# Entry
Amino acid sequence: MGHAPISEIIKQMTLEEKASIIAGTGMRFQGHGTVIGEADGRVPGAAGNTMSLNRFGIPGTVLSDGPAGVRIDPFHKGDSTKSYYATAWPVGTLLASSWDTSLVKKVGVAFGNEIKEYGVDVILAPGMNIQRNPLNGRNFEYFSEDPYVSGYMAAAMVNGIQSNGVGTSIKHFAANNEETNRNSISAIISERALREIYLRGFEIAVRRAQPLTVMSSYNKINGTYTSESNDLLTKILRDEWGFKGMVMTDWFGGKDPVAQMKAGNDLLEPGTPRQQQAIIDAVKNGTLDVKVLDQNVERVLLYILKTPSFKKYQYSSTPDLNAHAATSRQAAADGMVLLKNRNAALPLNKGLKVALFGVASYKTITGGTGSGEVNVAYVVSIEEGLSHAGYLVDQSLKTKYITQIQEDLKAHPKKMLTLGTPRLVPEPELTGDEIVRAAEQNDIAILTISRNAGEGADRKVADFNLSGSEKEQLKTIENLFHVEDKKLIVVLNIGGVIETASWKYDADAILLAWQPGLEGGNAVADVLSGAVDPSGKLAQTFPVKYEDVPSAKYFPGTPADHPAEVVYQEGIYVGYRYYNTFGVKTAYPFGYGLSYTKFAYSNLKLSSITFNKKLTAAVTITNTGKVAGKEVVQLYVSAPHVGLDKPSEELKAFGKTGLLKPGESQTITLTLNPKDLASFNTDASAWIADAGKYEVKIGASSEDIKLVKSFTLAKTLTVEKDHKALAPQVTIDELKK
# Structure
């Protein structure tokens, strides 16, 4: 294929060859019907691959999970001498909490090297669905409730990974916002909510990073499978956004291979003989124009041309895992969020004696389950991280927890790829006497609260809330340590948002560590000790209670026992757009995060008081505290309301300072483009910016606005005219203010 142009090859290909190249090579099934991909044996454990056609010199290519690291088998059959462990990076939610696109790109560069050196052509990542509801089991893989954060984080990750000459597959396109009945559920969404919330992030990623591939999702949108939607995959993705690459299905996604070809879904994964036959039959009986199939084939071949496999790259199978672990540790520490720090309980003095509570302190959760899991050589627990940093962990508590973990592992051995709700080791029973002894003999209590979820199941409200026994234990530890005038630090080792409002007053400090990858324990210790100043901020809102979530009434859909559809009645009011606009109190707002130092915001300057093509806002950030730190700066816009309901403000740009020493300042300049002022007008199928006064709000969070300046747009601007696409077939009674 290196010599003949693709059009010539397609002319020479038989119909059977065309039908084989657009479907992967299938799968072998292992164990309990679990799906394990086999990419022509080269990379055991890879999720799937594409067919080779030897007579044209077309090699097979290798596709591997997943968003938090390369998910491949750690050992090859019959050879225990060489391992193929990969780095578990911090989960997407944690990376987004860094609000640092250069950091995320740096992770991507290291991740891409590992992908390439393990012989993989495309990583099935990043996951970038909007966190519509905190109960989605896969939220850990995703970045944010906000499309700008999601889009810019995904673009940074794609640019980093693809700088290595390997490909990405941004997923799951689109509106795959729950695991419940994910293969059949129809998401009923207005055109405006789709455009502004659920598609916008993908659009930013496509325009800023040109991922090699896009993965269509399992669900339907307004009654049509996404993989069978020409509106989504051709009109919007290619015609409007200028996507140049290949679209693949999620594994066994969609139903009708002929409709998938017509929609512009080029590659069917993992590929079945039935799909190939259906396409051959459709061309023969005239229901599929061979020109349509030829275009799908061309896109698959163009993809193959760009891969390391085609270029015969000699991969080493020995990426620099030590260097990558250091990058993972740095990223983890930079994305952790300090939620509370009463009377400067943190950072901890060196050498303290620590009473360490919670199973996850000793068996720290690196990431969620399913295709987002990673096989790692080791995990640094919080206990090990604290010990490495010179803290003295109470040995009798440690023995109690380690015994519990070991006995549980004997009773419930670890399975390979698991779908559904993962099992957590139950907390051991602690007596009052044990806690009293711990309080007398140690300087401080640290309690880790953990949650895990993953592919194939959504969380329950009971998982969002703390259990009775968790609250009781927290209260007991707090009381018994406070009697001794000692503090309680809570670490949250969780993959999704939980309830905090009912218990946060009991803790002296709360560190949100998310699921921090294989170096997690070291990263937690870096932040608790003050070696790293916490600079993460929330990329999703922590509501006071689950019932406050705008989609709570509609999630996961109807009928309740087996949802066939889910109506997005909250419309554009997702996350902070809802809480701010409707004045609903939050536990911790979007964009919030504390530091060990303080920052002053000053000198907001707009490049103009009238908008013309673009506008910049410059703001000076000064470290007015006592330690070095970084600050995330958020730019929100309030737009005039002319006929269209709009959120009170929306994030339109963000930046992060470098490490500022005490007294040091940095000016951050953020840019607004015409589309940043516009809302999607359904009647006009266009993005329209209304004439009038716009406010630029510079905030330390969505609720903590520091500086405000306004500019005007002299006349109404039609920024972009789009196709009429993905229209709902029913009237949606959408939330209005």
Q: What stands out?
A: The mean pLDDT is 96.
